[in-house]
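Severity: low
Component: inverse-folding endpoint
Summary: output formatting inconsistent between runs
Steps to reproduce: submit the following structure tokens with default settings.
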């Protein structure tokens, strides 16, 4: 692999001429350009992107910041692989690259972000796992660093975000269960301060009120967002003095753990307790009885999120004048047997 200096020496022309030829400058004649390109291919020339980035003051890299812990590794699903594939497709239009920035569980997310900013690793950020009050947004705005969030937050300053329609899922699920005759409906949300749990719970509470059903905090089960969390939720639900007749889950893999606990107790989803899961994914697709849940296009969501981010960046915003400032992504109902027949 040769650098530009060796390439110039091999051709016996100046480094400046080689650089201009490689970059397609018009002041280099066609014969010289062909010689340079042929020699670059022959010698395996690779541009020094670090030096170029340093001179230009940009990296041409976008950072996707995620939470990374044992739970995330053991219970990973297809969400981020599907999302990142479409994000990279958008960024590739402009020769930008996407890198994952996994924040370890033992480190404060805010401190991790500040370190990434100080190191100038990326030009812009996509923030995920948003918290109810998230200091990362105020920091990025004050630093004038482009970013978007996958998820909402109660943070005061307006920022661009896209999120799944958690309120819509909660409302539709409650409406469906009430129509089937259920009144004692439990909900399982993450035990962390991740904001999607708050959003989902608000939608659940509003839907109960619409049907004249009193909110009961006893029926709100807070567990880890994982298969193990679903199993724990099953344990807690079955220990209640008056067992709920239906339960709504806010995380995909909870359904697997809940099914396992119900099976241990000789109970069947859809017969003994109605279950509505969240988003269908490969590991829940083959549960029996078939899980009633929702679907969404992660590819389209990633495209929308990527274009929203580029619309905040000066070099690319002219390409995306119609990108929205906020986006609630719809989910499509996927009926199964786990929520049972009409009662």
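Observed output (run 2 of 3):
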């Amino acid at each position: 692999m040769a650098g530009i200096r060796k390439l110039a020496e091999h051709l016996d022309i100046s480094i400046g001429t080689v650089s201009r030829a490689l970059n397609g400058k018009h002041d280099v004649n066609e014969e010289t350009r062909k010689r340079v390109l042929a020699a670059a291919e022959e010698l395996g020339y690779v541009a020094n992107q670090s030096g170029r980035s340093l001179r230009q003051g940009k990296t041409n890299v976008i950072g996707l910041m995620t939470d990374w812990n044992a739970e995330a590794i053991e219970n990973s699903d297809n969400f981020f692989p599907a999302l990142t594939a479409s994000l990279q497709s958008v960024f590739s239009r402009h020769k930008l690259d996407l890198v994952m920035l996994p924040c370890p569980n033992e480190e404060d997310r805010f401190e991790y972000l500040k370190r990434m900013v100080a190191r100038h690793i990326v030009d812009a950020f996509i923030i995920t796992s948003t918290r109810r009050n998230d200091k990362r947004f105020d920091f990025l705005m004050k630093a004038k660093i482009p970013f978007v969030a996958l998820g909402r937050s109660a943070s005061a300053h307006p920022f661009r975000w896209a999120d799944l329609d958690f309120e819509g899922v909660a409302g539709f699920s409650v409406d469906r269960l009430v129509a089937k005759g259920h009144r004692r409906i439990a909900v399982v949300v993450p035990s962390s301060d991740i904001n999607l749990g708050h959003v989902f719970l608000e939608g659940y509470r509003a839907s109960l009120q619409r049907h004249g059903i009193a909110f009961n905090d006893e029926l709100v089960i807070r567990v880890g967002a994982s298969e193990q969390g679903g199993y724990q939720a099953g344990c807690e639900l079955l220990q209640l003095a008056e067992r709920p007749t239906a339960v709504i889950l806010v995380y995909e893999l909870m359904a697997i753990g809940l099914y396992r606990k119900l099976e241990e107790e000789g109970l069947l989803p859809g017969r003994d307790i109605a279950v509505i899961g969240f988003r269908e994914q490969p590991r829940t697709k083959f549960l029996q009885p078939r899980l009633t849940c929702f679907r969404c296009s992660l590819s389209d969501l990633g495209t929308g999120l990527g274009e929203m981010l580029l619309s905040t960046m000066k070099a690319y915003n002219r390409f995306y004048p119609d990108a929205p400032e906020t986006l609630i992504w719809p989910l499509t109902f996927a009926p199964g047997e786990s929520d049972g027949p009409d009662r």
